[in-house]
Amino acid sequence: MELFGDPAVWLPFTFAALMGLSILIYVVLDGFDLGVGVLFPFAEPAERDRMIASIGPFWDANETWLVLAIGILLVAFPSAHGAILTALYLPVAVMLIGLILRGVAFEFRAKAPLTQKRAWDGAFYAGSLMTSLAQGFMLGLYIMGLEQSWATYGFAILTAVFLTVGYSFIGATWLILKTESALQRKAVDWAKGGIWGLVLGLGAISAASPLVSPRIFDKWFSMPEFLYLAPFPILSGLLVLGLWRGLQRLPAEGDKGAWQPFAGSIALFTLAFLGLAYSFYPYVVPEKLTIYEAASAPESLIIILVGTCFVLPAILAYTALAYVIFRGKATELSYD
Fold this sequence. Notes:
globular, 2 strands, single chain, mainly alpha
């Protein structure tokens, strides 16, 4: 097959897949800890400590996947990196400020006097909200082909709100898995509300994508391409139905089924991401630059791929190890 015969073809495809995998893992993993931060104002002070404890061992490592995705974009698709970050300079800056604020607040809320703890809790919430909204805004502009107009800004604001609600939903499902008693019951209620925002967000993105590009419209609604895409909305609908029914049965005796909403939300995010990837392929800058046009020279990509073969398994290994070591319910927060 030509895909696996010509390095100028299979290398860009490989790096696009690796970048997509990194983005997907980041959205799921950092999505839930951003969601926990977004839910902070709805929790009592003591509950916030338990919420922080539930993400404490993971949140910093989760952001590694964002660094990896941007690194792959820079070294494998340098022209696309320039075009995307130039168009998204302001929301990227807001996102970075939010991530910094989260990191500082995470550490300082434990060391500050009790009278200042509430302020640092507010900073943690603000950083989480800024990061979530910025990422949603970037997603909206990307779907709109990075065009700058009032209409595209309006859609980007819409996706910013819906992605933030989506993060709060996956954050709530994480808390269902990691907490118990009153906080777990609250998390179930948060998830019941958040799932509808997630559904509306997926619906808005699904409605807008084919309208932006005649190419995507044809890819969605011509035969046999329509048959390739059909499983995505069908499976997504079944997942939403299953999630809703599962949430009605929680919390259950013996914590039965507490893992199911989080697993279902991961599957739903994955299906949405795969649908976007299918729609926009082979473009890395929508309708302007394909992965093959934007890719570095095959000689450079081969060298980068060798390094990636060492780096990626290491990141996967320590990420998996952290989740295995700190499995189970979040314990009392301690910084000793």
